[in-house]
Amino acid sequence: MPDLEVLHFARDHRACEQTDVEMRRLFGSPARYYQRLGRAIDDPDVLESDPQLVYRLRRIRDGRRGSRAARTLERL
Questions:
Q1: DSSP code, position 42
Q2: pTM across the whole model
Q3: Per-residue pLDDT for the chain (76 aa), expressed as one digit of tens each?
Q4: Dihedral angle sign, alpha carbons of residues 34, 36, 42, 47
Q5: Where are the domains of the chain?
Protein backbone atom coordinates (compact mmCIF):
# COMPACT_ATOMS: atom_id res chain seq x y z
CA MET A 1 0.00 0.00 0.00
CA PRO A 2 1.56 3.33 -1.00
CA ASP A 3 2.45 5.93 1.61
CA LEU A 4 -0.51 8.13 0.75
CA GLU A 5 -2.93 5.33 1.56
CA VAL A 6 -1.38 4.99 5.02
CA LEU A 7 -1.74 8.73 5.48
CA HIS A 8 -5.37 8.66 4.35
CA PHE A 9 -6.08 5.85 6.81
CA ALA A 10 -4.59 7.97 9.62
CA ARG A 11 -6.74 10.92 8.58
CA ASP A 12 -9.98 8.98 8.22
CA HIS A 13 -9.82 6.63 11.22
CA ARG A 14 -9.78 7.65 14.85
CA ALA A 15 -8.65 5.25 17.55
CA CYS A 16 -11.41 2.79 18.39
CA GLU A 17 -12.02 -0.94 18.37
CA GLN A 18 -13.19 -0.96 14.74
CA THR A 19 -10.08 0.96 13.67
CA ASP A 20 -7.89 -1.73 15.22
CA VAL A 21 -9.73 -4.42 13.26
CA GLU A 22 -9.40 -2.45 10.02
CA MET A 23 -5.74 -1.71 10.77
CA ARG A 24 -5.03 -5.42 11.18
CA ARG A 25 -6.89 -6.23 7.97
CA LEU A 26 -5.03 -3.66 5.87
CA PHE A 27 -1.56 -3.66 7.43
CA GLY A 28 -1.22 -6.95 9.31
CA SER A 29 -0.67 -5.48 12.76
CA PRO A 30 -0.78 -2.13 14.55
CA ALA A 31 3.03 -2.20 14.84
CA ARG A 32 3.39 -2.58 11.09
CA TYR A 33 0.91 0.25 10.50
CA TYR A 34 2.81 2.63 12.79
CA GLN A 35 6.12 1.71 11.14
CA ARG A 36 4.69 2.55 7.73
CA LEU A 37 3.04 5.71 9.01
CA GLY A 38 6.31 6.86 10.55
CA ARG A 39 8.09 6.39 7.25
CA ALA A 40 5.28 8.08 5.34
CA ILE A 41 5.24 11.27 7.41
CA ASP A 42 8.99 11.67 6.83
CA ASP A 43 8.52 11.47 3.04
CA PRO A 44 8.68 14.92 1.33
CA ASP A 45 6.15 13.83 -1.31
CA VAL A 46 3.64 12.91 1.38
CA LEU A 47 4.26 16.24 3.10
CA GLU A 48 3.35 18.05 -0.13
CA SER A 49 0.07 16.16 -0.40
CA ASP A 50 -1.31 17.10 3.04
CA PRO A 51 1.06 19.31 5.07
CA GLN A 52 -1.38 20.05 7.88
CA LEU A 53 -2.01 16.37 8.60
CA VAL A 54 1.66 15.43 8.28
CA TYR A 55 2.76 18.16 10.70
CA ARG A 56 0.06 17.11 13.19
CA LEU A 57 1.12 13.46 12.99
CA ARG A 58 4.78 14.45 13.39
CA ARG A 59 3.97 16.48 16.51
CA ILE A 60 2.11 13.51 17.99
CA ARG A 61 4.97 11.12 17.15
CA ASP A 62 7.66 13.45 18.46
CA GLY A 63 5.73 14.08 21.67
CA ARG A 64 5.47 10.35 22.30
CA ARG A 65 9.18 9.91 21.62
CA GLY A 66 9.95 12.61 24.16
CA SER A 67 7.70 10.98 26.75
CA ARG A 68 9.35 7.59 26.23
CA ALA A 69 12.82 9.12 26.49
CA ALA A 70 11.91 10.89 29.73
CA ARG A 71 10.55 7.67 31.26
CA THR A 72 13.71 5.83 30.26
CA LEU A 73 15.90 8.47 31.91
CA GLU A 74 13.81 8.30 35.09
CA ARG A 75 14.56 4.59 35.38
CA LEU A 76 18.32 5.07 35.11
A1: T
A2: 0.78
A3: 478 999 999 999 887 788 889 999 999 999 999 999 999 999 999 999 999 999 999 999 998 876 666 666 677 6
A4: negative
A5: 3-71
pLDDT, residue 74, reads 73
Give the integer Cα–Cα distance in Å for 53 and 29.
22
Which of 32, 33, 31 lies closest to 13, judged by CA?
A: 33
Which CA distances in Å does 14 have to 8, 11, 26, 43?
11, 8, 15, 22
Contacts for 45 with CB less than 8 Å, ≥ 6 apart: 3
Sign of the four-CA dihedral 68, 69, 72, 74: negative
